[in-house]
């Protein structure tokens, strides 16, 4: 039997097909509770049944665990694949029942491979990495809000303290949120502020800030602006500590993951980047080739040629794991400086006249090939081996 499940927050829809592709009854509704799960298992019958469903948010996780524990084969599909399959059938109406039937039809016709989830450590790394991303997003949002308040109350401040996300900036602005507050302070008092538990602001910077505040064009010094600035600075200090804690937790957890530690043997890939790779892909060696792994990330050229239109340069498309692709950008910039093998590859492309961005994308793909090689052979990265393979 084949089945398709349309996932929702509180109710799922199940459609079933027999081994000839004929529908078994009408699609049924499954509630997200014990009674609903028991009804689902009874409707599926004895395992194994190949079940197709989309990886929608987090709503599929409990369902996946129950179905696989019962012995069924579950294929988690990219929603784009399911949508394209439905479009090919020229289906114009969209309902949960039609979507579930389409997924069951896809399972019957395409026979997708069952999905195997990451190991426990990889799953924990995924949760920690996503939690860190949310904290970082909150932190960056607060920095943007602080920029607004500084622009209104003391726009000259950033001439002397460049980064508002630094401990120096939050220490100063929490105590003196506006130019008016700075102007009323003495340089000596400002200089004695300690911003990281060890370093003081210093007399030179304090004198410059107080003098600039007295000539500032900032016009917003009221209690509302002061209160917002203080609260934002307190939030930034809190989130900064939380980010440091979770990054430490990620590194400790990565130390227990053999593959994660091996990936860090590649110059330019640190613990945080290795954790992201493991969190996103589990084990890169599960891909059939290095090219397939690069395609999963989305670092593949998409050449478009049709009739008289002959594209001469292929750009990368939007498909692939965009989050991991973005996370790899800065490590690639570091790797082309620190990794002799990758730097030589990058400089060779530049010498051949390739644009800098194209050469960096190619270097990212090459770096992913190195990650795949480490994962496949379970050995630390060796430049000599990669150079011999490239030759």
UniProtKB/TrEMBL annotation:
GO MF, any single term: DNA binding
Annotated Transposase IS110-like N-terminal domain residues: 3-155
GO BP term, example: DNA transposition
UniProt cross-references to Pfam families, sorted A to Z: DEDD_Tnp_IS110, Transposase_20
Record's signal peptide: none
Domain Transposase IS116/IS110/IS902 C-terminal: 261-346
NCBIfam families found in the cross-reference section: transpos_IS110
UniProt-listed PANTHER family: TRANSPOSASE, TRANSPOSASE FOR INSERTION SEQUENCE ELEMENT IS1111A
Protein name (record): Transposase
UniProt organism field: Humitalea rosea
